[in-house]
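Onboarding guide, step 5: your first structure request.
Type a short instruction followed by the sequence, for example:

Predict the 3D structure of this protein.
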Amino acid sequence: MKRARKAGWDPPVGDQPNQHVGAMLHGLREQAGITQGEVAADIGVSQSYISRVERGSRPASDRIVRYYGERFGAPDLLASLVDIARESERDRQRRRNPLLIARQNRYPLEGDEAKFVSEAPPDGSTVPCGATFTKTWTIRNSGTIPWLGRRLRRVGPTTGPWTLTSARFTPIPDTEPGETVSISVQVHTPQMETAAVAQWKMVDKDDLLYFPTKYSVGLALYVLVGHQASDMP
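The system replies with structure tokens like these:
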């Protein structure tokens, strides 16, 4: 038995990130009392295209996300949800590529090792709301394989109302065995008081984990946001 369909929108079902994005877009627009036709005219696309985006059958473009966020509010929450949907789609594509599957199964490479050395500022530091700071980790290539063309990948959402905002990827300078390397990430804190955690892992150019079965936490950051006093330099 088919479920009832509301004109211009389908309620999200299960693990369908684009449907959840579409549902939020639909809800923001409906709450504002604006029609799909008005949105389409403002953006310069067809109403049927807006309908497909709100149903989740088409991913939301940056232009649509920006328009809905600026006109109807909740831009941080919407950006976070879109980020999750896009990462989910990229993960699904990687899982369908036999060449990438075969390469991921070869990781970790024999002799590939990393050792944590230090971090600044230390985990548990306090920082004001809406602040921007730099987190730096120093790690050692403790194995026998040079690190060439590697990068850190942020795990999970990279932005949101209660989330530390950062770039998805951060390059890792080439590092020979026995050398140490410092990796810095610029982070922006949310506008409300919270305890915030973020996590990064080492990946190759195709976003495959170098250490899928090692270092389950990777490089992490934990700060207390919203305190008047700050431990940040």
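Each response can be followed by summary notes, for example: Residues 1-9 have pLDDT under 50 and may be disordered.
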